[in-house]
């Protein structure tokens, strides 16, 4: 099960530098000119989770396999992208393929790094990108509504639902609000997602600050925090330049460097976790002497579907899930201790997997 977060923003805000740090490669060219990223670069990153290491230590697991997320570095957008300006058409197409957006905003002053619009104003930058996405959505909706007319005359139920959802989104967009602001009934969620509206995707604002502001942010990142709070969106403060330096160090040197900067952890760890939360994801674990592994599921996933993430046969032949809460597993010193303490539970098909559950699935082959 893959979850993709697209790194977007105006040119020269630090997108590719951030991507390089995330993937610990130099695959994305970081250069001081627009459109240095022509094709979207894709990289998988491990989701930092200290719980997995503690479980592996208790079980003496030979291998540790973390959960993973995919980040996509997408070419920089400019004003007019919705009409094909710059690399607009490609940019918009690439965004449609991701599950969420990490919107990098320049919150630093640097005369050596040009800004495509000649000023440093992260809130205005956010508005530029959002406006282009909204215009693209409006154009897409109007074309779809026109194409639905024949099916509507025939009384097609699916077309009636699409028409209703598209008109609700269009009303919000025309009022200056993104599609993600539209309340969606549970029975409409699947059809809503299939519309693939750009502004329906959840957004995380990434405030790229200068090195001296990495710990506490600055006045510009404070403005972004206020913007995010007003939208119900997330935000993180990070120095892409620091993160790129850290990514080139071994663990001991990285820890020393972080201590010198008075940082508790790499900003990338916070970014990845924020992306995980943004997508509404949860983690369960399988633990044994051979392997300790973290698995990713959407919140609300039931036990058989969680089993299916491991293997389809586990879901099809699901019998029950032997389940231990993470805290109980640790407190009892491992699986055997949890069993003896009566902390292992047998859960059936209706059980909703909790974040941190340690699970063993029984199934018919």
Q: What do these coordinates show?
A:
This protein starts with a strand and ends with a strand. A 6-stranded mixed β-sheet has the order 2-4-1-5-6-7, sandwiched between helices. A 3-stranded mixed β-sheet has the order 3-9-8, sandwiched between helices. The radius of gyration is 23 Å and the shape is flat. Helix content is 42%, strand content 19%. Helix 1 runs parallel beside helix 8 and helix 4 (122-153) runs antiparallel to helix 5. Mean pLDDT is 86; it is low at 25-38. The protein contains 14 helices and 12 strands. It is α/β, with parallel strands linked by helices and 365 residues long.
What topology does this entry show?
Blueprint: E1 4-8, H1 15-23, E2 41-46, H2 50-59, E3 63-65, E4 68-73, H3 88-96, E5 100-106, H4 122-153, H5 157-174, H6 189-194, E6 203-208, H7 219-231, E7 234-238, H8 240-247, H9 251-260, H10 267-278, E8 281-287, E9 291-298, H11 303-310, H12 312-316, E10 318-324, H13 326-331, H14 335-340, E11 345-347, E12 358-363
Parallel strand pairs: 1-4, 1-5, 3-9, 5-6, 6-7
Antiparallel strand pairs: 2-4, 8-9, 10-11, 10-12
Give the integer mean of the pLDDT values. Answer: 86
Q: Order of SSEs, N→C?
A: EHEHEEHEHHHEHEHHHEEHHEHHEE
What is the number of E strands? 12
Going by helix content, strand content and strand pairing, the class is alpha/beta
Radius of gyration: 23 Å
Q: Span from first to last CA?
A: 22 Å
Which consecutive residue ranges, at least 5 long each, have pLDDT under 50?
A: 25-38
Please state the overall shape, judged from the principal axes of the Cα atoms: flat
Spatial strand arrangement across the major sheet: 2-4-1-5-6-7
Q: How many H/I helices?
A: 14
The percent range for strand residues is 15-25%
In percent, how helical is the residue content?
Answer: 40-55%
Largest sheet: number of strands, sense, barrel closure? 6 strands, mixed
């Amino acid at each position: 099960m893959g979850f993709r977060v697209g790194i977007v923003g105006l040119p020269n805000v630090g997108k590719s530098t951030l991507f390089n740090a995330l993937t610990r490669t130099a695959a994305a060219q970081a250069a001081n000119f627009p459109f240095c990223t022509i094709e979207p670069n894709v990289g998988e990153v491990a989701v930092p989770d200290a719980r997995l290491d503690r479980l592996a230590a208790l079980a003496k697991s030979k291998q540790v396999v973390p959960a993973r997320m995919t980040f996509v570095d997408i070419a920089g957008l400019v004003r007019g992208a919705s009409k094909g300006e710059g690399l607009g058409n490609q940019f918009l197409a690439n965004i449609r393929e991701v599950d969420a957006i990490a919107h990098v905003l320049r919150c630093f002053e640097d005369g050596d790094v040009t800004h495509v619009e000649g000023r440093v104003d992260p809130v205005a930058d956010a508005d530029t990108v959002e406006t282009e996405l909204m215009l693209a959505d409006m154009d897409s909706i109007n074309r779809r509504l026109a194409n639905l007319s024949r099916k509507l005359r025939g009384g097609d139920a699916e077309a009636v639902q699409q028409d209703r959802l598209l008109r609700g989104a269009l009303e919000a967009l025309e009022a200056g609000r993104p599609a993600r602001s539209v309340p969606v009934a549970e029975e409409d969620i699947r059809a809503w997602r299939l519309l693939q509206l750009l502004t329906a995707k959840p957004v995380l604002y990434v405030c790229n600050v200068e090195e001296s502001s990495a710990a506490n942010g600055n006045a510009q990142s404070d403005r972004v925090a206020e913007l995010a709070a007003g939208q119900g969106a997330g935000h993180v403060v990070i120095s892409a330049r620091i993160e790129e330096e850290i990514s080139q160090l071994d663990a001991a040197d990285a820890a020393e460097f972080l201590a010198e900067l008075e940082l508790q952890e790499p900003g990338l760890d916070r970014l990845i976790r924020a992306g995980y939360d943004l997508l509404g994801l949860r983690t369960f674990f399988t633990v044994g002497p051979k392997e300790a592994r973290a698995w990713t599921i959407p919140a609300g996933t039931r036990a058989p579907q969680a089993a299916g993430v491991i293997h389809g046969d586990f879901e099809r032949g699901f019998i029950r899930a032997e389940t231990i809460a993470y805290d109980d597993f640790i407190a009892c010193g491992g699986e055997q201790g949890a069993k003896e303490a009566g902390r292992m539970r047998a859960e059936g098909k209706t059980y909703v997997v909790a974040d941190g559950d340690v699970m063993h699935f029984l199934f018919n082959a």
